[in-house]
Amino acid sequence: MTEITKKWYVVRTQGGKEKKAKEYLEKEIELAGLTEQVPQILVPTEKYYQIKNGKRVSAERIFLPGYILVQAALTGEIELLVRNTTYVAGFLSEGKDKDKHPVPIREAELNRILGSVDEVAQQEEETVVPYVVGEAVKIIDGPFNGFDGSVEKIMDDKRKLAVTVKIFGRKTIVELNFAQVTKV
Question: With contact defined as beta carbons under 8 Å apart, do 150 and 133 qualify?
Fold first, then answer.
């Protein structure tokens, strides 16, 4: 039997239900015995970092909200199964009403989507700076633990703050990591 080429298709899903749609679709494909025709289903996500309560926290967000990517050798049976799965709205397609046909995405587009997701995953952490100059902070780690101060300068590239602290009655600037301070 000749091998049918598998192409990538974009499938629309209900907003916020991308992972559930993927789960349901995988179960339906497994039950129908079509795992060879549909080898991969992806929910493109990206990883990012933010500071919460003085600690760096990793989180993940969906890169293409409302869409999942499906690699399939598209036949009528598979197309119908995908369209009738819970939380799936259908394929991204072209044509008018009755003549709508799912259109595979170009290799360049796929590489751009997957490449940009990989770049974000490999990229140096993206940090949301929760401090502003002049803001009062409390030092929670290091030799100045327990001291109060105010932010003088934010060094976003180094992920550090210059904080003015009163030591022995004199104002001194101390360089600290984002994780070493918390808002007062």
Answer: no
Exposed, middle or buried by CB within 10 Å (0-12, 13-18, 19+), for 17? middle
90-106 residue pLDDT tens: 888 876 666 678 889 98
Provide the whole-model pTM. 0.59
Cα distance between residue 88 and residue 18, in whole Å: 9
Check if the beta carbon of residue 37 is closer than 8 Å to that of residue 4: yes
Distance CA 52, CA 136 (A): 16
pLDDT of residue 163: 94
- Residues 4, 99: Cα–Cα separation, whole Å: 23
Cβ contacts of 62 within 8 Å, gap of 6 or more: 18, 43, 44, 45
- Using DSSP's 3-state secondary structure scheme, residue 24 falls into helix
26-30, 54-58, 89-93, 121-125 — which is least confidently predicted? 121-125
Which phi and psi angles does 120 have, rounded to 5°? -65, -40
